[in-house]
Amino acid sequence: MPEHDDTLRPSWVPEEKDSHFACSVMRGIDTAANSITDNKEYSDVAIKKMPLRKKLSVEDYVEGVSRGDRMVLAQAITLIESNAPKDFDRAQRVLQALLPRTGKALRIGITGVPGAGKSTFIEAFGQMLCRQGCHVAVLAVDPTSSITGGSILGDKTRMQMLSREPNCFIRPSPSKGTLGGVARKSRETMLLCEASGCDVILVETVGVGQSETTVRSMVDFFMLIVLTGAGDDLQGIKKGIMELADAIVVNKADGDNLERAKVAQGEYERMTEFIRPATEGWKTHAYRCSALKKTGLLELWAVIREFEKTTKASGVFKNRRQDQVLSWVHSMIDEHLHNLFFNDPIIMGRMPDVRNAVLDGRISPSQAVTELIRAFDMDRAAMHHLNGK
Ligand SMILES: Nc1nc2c(ncn2[C@@H]2O[C@H](COP(=O)(O)OP(=O)(O)OP(=O)(O)O)[C@@H](O)[C@H]2O)c(=O)[nH]1
Ligand SMILES: [Mg+2]
Fold it and tell me: Any idea which of 180-189, 203-212, 222-231, 238-247 has the lowest mean pLDDT?
């Protein structure tokens, strides 16, 4: 079999697929007339070729995104999301050039159990912000759904009112690959949106359990949306997730549910007494709203603005951003080293024996690690030696 050439991988091939991921690309139709060229009757028809979409240069991306051109922004995000190594370098150059324009938006994360009303909330809240003159971007982090392309893709068609707002940009999750990969792409997407002039970024977590901490680590304000019936085993919400939240919002406070929502709000408020606050110098409270009836949204926005004011004055806002960017660097190093180690041919060759030896009790786990790391070091040193010659 010929050596696998990574540069030939189409950019949409999922990261986790190995070289055996197979596809064939068929020649497309250039023009409507293309399909009838074999027909003698039409052989003289002048075939006007459709212009191909111009391939953007790094400067085109930078200029277009800076100008707030949403088409170019979408294309730049596609470049960031590409898994092709040849795109990685260009994407990073675009980001690098845009970096001075980033960081000015307020980043808000929204989580909650499935069906809590996150998407409905984002649609209503986003519309309200657009009406106030804000430029809003809606993103999602969904490492779970590689098949459907992420439920926000469905939401994009569902968030019809919001997607019609000229000041709003909705982007489905880069749903392919590991959580680490998805997180990198989402963070970089967020930076691109900021560079294009968005001043509020709403990030929805999709998929239960894994993505909350990741989204918390990329936003300033984190909101947990809950439903009534707080006593019912907390609806599967772990205390840990409540401890990430800067606000707990009881949604669906409308109609017959309003009274129950008031009770739930009280119960959650009491619970906040027992949890560690997510942000130093900020007391997490419980609120209520109806995403459907669009009530309580303005009040929530006021809470968020107050949060921004307080944390900016105390320096907590800036410190958190700095911690976030440093831990982002660390997690990327972790991921890189992890891949380097586990994809090393020597390690891959030795792993089954070492695994069995540990399982049989012939060597201790620590011994196994020492041996593997030594083999890895030697392999890297040999590679350096060869490359140096
Ligand atoms: N009565 C009432 N219904 C609501 C409200 N907000 C959302 N809903 C309904 O609740 C259902 C779920 O809403 P979504 O916005 O899709 O919930 P979600 O949290 O995004 O769900 P997933 O994306 O599947 O996790 C929909 O049928 C909404 O119409 C509300 O404030 N009041
Ligand atoms: Mg949703």
Answer: 203-212
Residue 357 tokens read as 């030896």
Residues near ligand 1 (Cβ within 6 A): 112, 114-120, 151, 206, 251-252, 254, 290-292
pLDDT tens readout for residues 60-73: 999 999 999 999 99
Which of 113, 119, 159 to probe ligand 1 with, by most ligand atoms within 8 A of CB?
Answer: 119
Sign of CA dihedral 127, 129, 131, 135: negative
Q: What is the pLDDT of residue 239?
A: 74
Please give the angle made by the CA atoms of 195, 200 and 206, to the nearest 5 degrees.
105
- The stretches of 145-276 forming alpha helices (DSSP H) are 151-158, 160-163, 179-195, 211-216, 239-242, 258-272
Helices (H) and strands (E) in the chain, counts: 14, 7
- The token pair that represents 293 in the structure block: 């009836």
Task: Give the pLDDT confidence score for residue 147 in this predicted structure.
Answer: 44
